[in-house]
Amino acid sequence: MEHGFEDTERAAGGAVEDGAPERAAPDDGAPDGAAPEDATTDELAPEEEVAATIEDDLAALARERDEYLALAQRTQADFENYRKRVARDAANAEIRGVSRLAREMLPALDSLERALAAAGEQDDQLLDGLRLVHRELAGALERIGIESFGAAGERFDPELHEAVAQLPADGVSAGEITEVYQAGYRLEGGPILRHARVVVAG
Fold this sequence. Notes:
Blueprint lengths: L1 H18 L17 H83 L5 H19 L2 E4 L11 E7 L9 E6 L1 E4 L4 E3 L1 E6 L1
Parallel strand pairs: 2-6
Antiparallel strand pairs: 1-4, 3-6, 4-5
Helix pairs in contact: 2-3
């Protein structure tokens, strides 16, 4: 009988165990329907990716801006150098043109000066006309920046004068110009167009 009772009890216990509901999963403390922590990380990842993309775009724009700025600065510098070079070339061309014109005019001016020196102080209408032409030519040269030099009493300067003779002279120190054969001309602030030919005291 005891065995029968135990068997009955075991059978009943087995039936209870077989029919019992499945054990519930352990409670992790999260409310029903709440997403796990990994899901929150996954939701933030797209925002971080967008922020990183924006930073990359800003860095690329900054590099592009710097490249364009450097290009603009180089272009401005090149243009400034070009402008200065054109201005310098134009000034040099003007100097060459003026110098060439003056060199062509100087022989005519020399001839007038010799003619007037030979005529002396004679009063004649023809001489008056020559004197007028001489003044106009000399004035034209001065207006374009050409000046004459070389006069008696000046100190001899080999950069300006050409000594055709060296003669002793009373009352004149050595190295002083005593006579001018041909006046010299130079462009104001520029090159010598012609050296003055002079006699120097020895």
